[in-house]
Fold this protein.
Amino acid sequence: MKESEIRERLRQGWLRAIVTFEVAGKPKEHVEESLDKYLENIRTDSRIVFLEEEREEAIAHEDGMFSAFSESELLIHGLETFTWLCVNFSPASIEVIEPDQFSIPAREVTNWLNDLLAKVHSISSEFRDHVGTREHLTLAMNQLIKNAILLSLRQGPKPAERIAGDTGIEAEQLAPFLEHMEKKGAIERSGENYALPK
């Protein structure tokens, strides 16, 4: 894009910024492909124009993970679009180059803040839903484990290692369940063996 076209868009309220995107994970090829797809998804939005882009090959970290970066100079159609980009694509960093100062009508600031609040409320609602789902799944999984222990003990008294073999759950992971069930009177312990109450 010519500098004159960039200047015209800036006069129309566009912003010029350097935005860094990062993708981490493994293997290396997956990280690089994911960054490509990530950037391609952004390119499909007509409110964002890529002016320049610098990419580096994914680098390895000590923990076996890889990270790939892209530093892009972008033209972005207004503050609302910039907020949308930041909220939905979570860049690693941003630097607004132009304009130096903003003169924004109150109505535009109101719309921008309301859009931002709507997104924050949406994220908050999704988070609460996930927490609720996780709690429900945790309760269900705990009950399944307790039932598996009870089924194992129907065959007679057993040490924790044999219960672990029956249930497919490591003995260390079963220990808190066995302790809890013993305290509640659901099972009894005699030496190393656990059994159903008489």
Remarks:
- The chain has a mean pLDDT of 89.
- The helical segments are 3-11, 28-43, 78-89, 106-153, 160-167, 171-183.
- The first strand starts at residue 15 and ends at 25.
- Strands lie at 15-25, 48-55, 59-60, 66-76, 93-98, 158-159, 188-190, 193-195.
